[in-house]
Every structure is written in C-alpha cells, then in structure tokens.
Design a protein that fits this description.
70 residues; mainly beta; four-stranded mixed beta sheet
Length: 70
C-alpha cells in the first residue's frame, strides 16, 4: 500500500461542510526551505517510514466540493 503525506504552507481549503477555512502553518518546516512552490519527494524503497513520500504545496486554494456542483 502506498501513502503520500500532504504538506502545505498557507491558503484556503473547504471543510467537510463546504465552508472556506483559511490556513496558515506557523512552523518553520525544512519542507518550506526549498525554492520550489510544489514538489513530490518519493522515499527510497528501503526507507523505513509510515508513508512512501511527501507532496508539498506552498499555497493551496479552495475549490467547490463535487457534490455541491450537482
């Protein structure tokens, strides 16, 4: 089973009820110190982690939930 852990720095997202939630992470994670806005890092096969990789996005943007578009 493959799992990707998703990290982000700031932006807005929708909660489970379709309301917009603004988010701002205060920690100074090493993930944020790269010059990239987005990146995917896959761990080597012999790495001992509970997940297989990391997807980082500097800024996220809320989009409508699919079931509200019907």
């Amino acid at each position: 089973m493959s799992t990707i852990c998703y990290y982000y720095k700031e932006g807005s997202r929708l909660d489970d009820y379709g309301r917009t939630v603004n988010v701002q992470r205060d920690d100074d994670s090493p993930l944020e110190k790269t010059g990239y806005e987005n990146y995917l890092f896959i761990f080597p096969p012999d790495a001992f982690h509970t997940y297989n990789g990391i997807y980082f996005t500097r800024k996220i943007t809320a989009s409508p939930l699919v079931y509200y578009l019907k």
